[in-house]
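Journal club prep — side note

Before the paper discussion, L.F. wants everyone to see what a predicted structure for a comparable chain looks like in token form. Sequence:
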Amino acid sequence: MARLVVFEGIDGSGKTSLSRMFHERLLRDGTPAVWLREPSDSPLGERIRRLARDEGSVSAREELELFIEDRRWDVEANILPALGAGKTVVMDRYYYSNACYQGARGLDVESILRRNRKFAPEPDIVFIIDVEVERALGRIGRAGRDPARLFERKDFLEKVRALYLGLRGPNLAHIDGNPSLRQVMEAVQRRFAACGGGPD
């Protein structure tokens, strides 16, 4: 059975590595699956990534509109076709990122979720990887990012994390992302199996 599985979390939470590991395990188990990320790999997605490197270059509202336009393309070009072909889609970020990141910039979280749900399929499960901000910043710093710039982002990421922690729903799974990647992946796998996941 095709499923839509989403990994969410603040920068440095490990969600990208975990989503890739999860995708690889599905393939090893014989489950047809694709891995996608947002912003997408479209020209618009690449533009969003460039803008993100220059914080404050666009307003929160403009940023949200770019993300929604990119997601509409991703849904039509990638997500729905893969699900229709019986493949499990593993997402590195989805519209919950918009709700929390643009929400931390002052926009209304619930209205962002409502707008996206009008056209984007609801995930079967969303793994929200929760990591303490200091730990997340340390991970990013070890990856070579400018520590001074990261320090300026601490307050912002605290707001984003609080919004993630406030999200509730039957398909949302809050996972402690502070242990090792291997331990976190084991927790993800247990939760996925508990909700009926696993090889078909």
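L.F.'s comment for the group: The chain has one domain: 4-194. Keep this in mind when we get to the figures.
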